[in-house]
């Protein structure tokens, strides 16, 4: 029987072992979710993440890291849910470790709920729709599917239409320090009516902008004639991922238009502007993630400019 030892994060000395575990998982799962020590460190330093309480490691009797889990939760507003992210070494799957990880996630979320005086919360987890074993484990442990997301892609070697903006609107790149509060307010107003929205904080936005891969020239905002930040599109490029895949890909990482400025063509214009930025940077493929049931027709917008489904991700939840 496998002997498991659970322990909290030990600091930077654990980063390489976590990266190696994720590498072993990626070799089997082929999700194209590569990571580096630097990326892990950036993630763990997020303002809302408690490295000592929201991250757990599992080792076997030789001291090898075979399990890794994080519990992410919103820092602002009433606690409603938490997201459990976990990976298990391929050689250690199918036993008791997955159940132990889910138990830890439930206990940590209950602890947070008690601290905040909340009676009902949901634990969430996701899976690619072809990860049959992972889905079976989630279902066996009380999770049910409640939302579907698509990863879509489009060739940038095909012609791109020119963006058409309403009269009086201007477009420029974000200036992080100067624009932080207005950008965050625009983001929260743009996504307030979306599934499972949690308000972003200015502190989180500034942390995002501190990422070494963040390039402000790919972070565009459309400004209304009265100076209001009305729409935005951020298109990141991940050089390490492209090196691993051998492809030149960029992402439409986030696209939104605040209420009061919708149905003016801003979303399409910003999407095309972002894709032009990726093309100018030498990218040949653009990818995007979208909620299948997005209430504002995002999937139909992406399809209208040539994006097509690549993968489906399923979000699962259970009451805790």
Automatic annotation (TrEMBL):
<dbReference type="GO" id="GO:0016746">
    <property type="term" value="F:acyltransferase activity"/>
</dbReference>
<dbReference type="Pfam" id="PF00583">
    <property type="entry name" value="Acetyltransf_1"/>
</dbReference>
<protein>
    <submittedName>
        <fullName>GNAT family N-acetyltransferase</fullName>
        <ecNumber>2.3.1.-</ecNumber>
    </submittedName>
</protein>
<dbReference type="InterPro" id="IPR016181">
    <property type="entry name" value="Acyl_CoA_acyltransferase"/>
</dbReference>
<dbReference type="InterPro" id="IPR050832">
    <property type="entry name" value="Bact_Acetyltransf"/>
</dbReference>
<dbReference type="InterPro" id="IPR000182">
    <property type="entry name" value="GNAT_dom"/>
</dbReference>
<keyword id="KW-0808">Transferase</keyword>
<keyword id="KW-0012">Acyltransferase</keyword>
<feature type="domain" description="N-acetyltransferase">
    <location>
        <begin position="169"/>
        <end position="320"/>
    </location>
</feature>
């Amino acid at each position: 029987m496998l002997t498991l030892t659970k322990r909290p994060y030990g600091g930077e000395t654990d980063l390489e072992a976590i990266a190696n575990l994720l590498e072993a998982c990626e070799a089997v799962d082929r999700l194209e979710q590569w990571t580096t020590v630097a990326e892990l460190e950036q993630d763990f330093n997020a303002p809302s993440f408690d490295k000592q309480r929201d991250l757990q490691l599992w080792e076997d009797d030789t001291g090898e890291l075979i399990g890794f889990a994080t519990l992410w939760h919103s820092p602002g507003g009433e606690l409603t849910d938490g997201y459990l992210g976990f990976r298990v070494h391929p050689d250690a799957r199918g036993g008791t470790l997955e159940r132990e990880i889910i138990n830890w996630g439930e206990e940590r979320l209950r602890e947070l709920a008690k601290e905040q005086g909340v009676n009902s919360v949901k634990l969430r987890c996701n899976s690619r729709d072809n990860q049959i074993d992972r889905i079976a484990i989630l279902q066996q442990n009380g999770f049910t599917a409640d939302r579907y997301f698509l990863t879509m892609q489009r060739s940038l070697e095909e012609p791109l239409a020119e963006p058409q903006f309403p009269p009086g609107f201007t477009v420029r790149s974000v200036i992080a320090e100067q624009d932080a509060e207005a950008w965050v307010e625009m983001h929260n107003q743009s996504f307030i009516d979306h599934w499972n929205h949690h308000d972003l904080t200015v502190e989180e936005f500034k942390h995002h902008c501190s990422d070494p891969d963040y390039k402000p020239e790919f972070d565009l905002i459309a400004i209304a004639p009265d100076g209001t930040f009305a729409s935005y599109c951020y298109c990141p490029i991940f050089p390490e991922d492209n090196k691993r895949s051998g492809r030149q890909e960029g992402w439409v990482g986030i696209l939104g238009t605040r209420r009061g400025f919708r149905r003016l063509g801003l979303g399409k214009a910003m999407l095309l502007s972002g894709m032009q930025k990726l093309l100018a940077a030498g990218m040949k493929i653009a990818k995007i993630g979208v909620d299948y049931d997005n209430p504002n027709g995002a999937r139909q917008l992406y399809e209208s400019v040539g994006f097509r489904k690549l993968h489906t991700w399923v979000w699962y939840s259970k009451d805790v």
